[in-house]
């Protein structure tokens, strides 16, 4: 009969990893309770205190999840073991008793035995309180290490600068090629071009069709270009009188001065006074211009050769 009325009462055990502590040194308290497997348990929880704080300057740093495992005791019965760990620390010296911990199994509470702790200062050795400073270690940096450092740091700028230099070099080389090619190519003398323009102007028969202004404007442009090229006379935006005055100081043959003056008088009359020139004046205008260019063209003037005396 006593065997049937006797039952295993769960016992809550509290075990600390360390009971003699230094100030602020943590210790882990493990709470464990064994419950027969044939008993129905809804919930199991653990507490170190009924209050929110532990008192006596104890601090709760952390707690683990509740772990559960099943084992078989000596009687062959299966037991459910529940366990949870709490990390606590104290920052005051003295001897303290941690009150019994609590395990709540369903609607029942179980208490553990209290735990005793001793908190003390950390023992400090009197000898060698101040340790000697280690000597400064000399580090030798090679020149190539500096180069690698700056290459790693400045490589985008160096790459960009390299492309710019290569681009400038290729551009200058290309421009030089164009200049050399241009110099090598034989240029057509300006006198030839002006004579060709006179020929084209004459073929269009402007004055024969009553287009006197266009005819004399074309001849004037050709004459101005030749005078500027051959004698260095500035004709751009100059009046006829200013051009004639500048010709006095040139080497132009004197017989052309009167003819050019006569041409400017007729040309200005046609342009500004709507003058209708005579046929002979129209023919003489282009004839005089062609004669001046052909007789004074610089491309056909031969340099006098200096004879070399034989010794």
How would you characterize the overall build of this protein?
The protein has 311 residues and is α+β, with helices and mostly antiparallel strands. It has two domains: 8-120, Immunoglobulin-like (Sandwich), CATH 2.60.40.740; 190-299, no CATH class. Helix content is 40%, strand content 21%. The chain has helices at residues 2-5, 143-184, 190-203, 212-231, 240-247, 254-272, 279-296; strands at 12-16, 20-22, 27-36, 44-47, 58-63, 67-72, 78-90, 94-98, 102-105, 108-111, 115-120. A hairpin with a 2-residue loop joins strand 9 and strand 10. Helix 3 packs antiparallel against helix 4 and helix 3 (190-203) packs antiparallel against helix 7 (279-296). The model is unreliable at 1-7 and 302-311 (pLDDT under 50).
Q: What is the level 1 CATH name of the largest domain?
A: Mainly Beta
Radius of gyration, CA atoms, in whole angstroms: 60 Å
Q: Which shape, going by the Cα principal axes?
A: rod-shaped
Q: Element order, helices and strands? A: HEEEEEEEEEEEHHHHHH
What is this structure, in a nutshell?
40% of the residues lie in helices and 21% in strands. It is of the alpha+beta class and 311 residues long.
What attributes characterize this protein structure?
five-stranded antiparallel sheet, alpha+beta, 11 strands, disordered C terminus, Immunoglobulin-like, 7 helices
Layout of SSEs?
Blueprint: H1 2-5, E1 12-16, E2 20-22, E3 27-36, E4 44-47, E5 58-63, E6 67-72, E7 78-90, E8 94-98, E9 102-105, E10 108-111, E11 115-120, H2 143-184, H3 190-203, H4 212-231, H5 240-247, H6 254-272, H7 279-296
Parallel strand pairs: 2-11
Antiparallel strand pairs: 1-3, 3-7, 4-9, 5-7, 6-7, 8-11, 9-10
Helix pairs in contact: 3-4, 3-7, 4-6, 4-7, 6-7
């Amino acid at each position: 009969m006593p065997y049937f009325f006797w039952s295993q009462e769960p016992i809550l055990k509290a075990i600390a990893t360390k009971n003699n502590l230094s100030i602020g040194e943590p210790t882990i308290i493990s709470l464990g309770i064994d419950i027969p497997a044939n008993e129905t348990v809804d919930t199991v929880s653990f507490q170190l205190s009924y209050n929110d704080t532990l008192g006596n300057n104890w601090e709760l740093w952390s707690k683990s999840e509740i772990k559960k495992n099943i084992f078989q005791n000596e009687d062959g019965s299966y037991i459910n073991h529940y366990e949870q760990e709490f990390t606590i620390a104290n920052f005051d010296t003295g001897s303290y008793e941690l009150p019994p911990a609590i395990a709540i199994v369903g609607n029942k509470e179980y208490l553990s035995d209290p735990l005793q702790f001793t908190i003390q200062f950390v023992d400090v050795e009197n000898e060698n309180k101040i340790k000697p400073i280690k000597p400064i270690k000399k580090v030798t940096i090679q020149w190539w290490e500096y180069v690698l450092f700056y290459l790693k740091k400045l490589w985008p700028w160096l790459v960009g600068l390299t492309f710019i230099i290569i681009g400038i070099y290729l551009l200058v080389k290309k421009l030089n090629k164009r200049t050399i090619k241009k110099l090598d190519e034989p240029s057509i003398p300006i006198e030839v071009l002006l004579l060709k323009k006179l020929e084209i102007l004459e073929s269009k028969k402007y004055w024969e069709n009553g287009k006197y202004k266009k005819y004399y404007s074309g001849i004037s442009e050709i004459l101005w270009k030749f005078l500027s090229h051959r004698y260095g006379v500035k004709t751009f935006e100059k009046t006829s009188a200013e051009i004639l005055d500048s010709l006095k100081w040139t080497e132009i043959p004197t017989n052309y001065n009167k003819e050019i003056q006569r041409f400017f008088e007729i040309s200005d009359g046609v342009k500004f006074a709507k003058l209708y020139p005579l046929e002979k004046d129209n023919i003489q205008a282009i004839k005089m211009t062609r004669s001046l260019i052909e007789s004074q063209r610089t491309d056909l003037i031969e340099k006098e050769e200096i004879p070399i005396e034989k010794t």
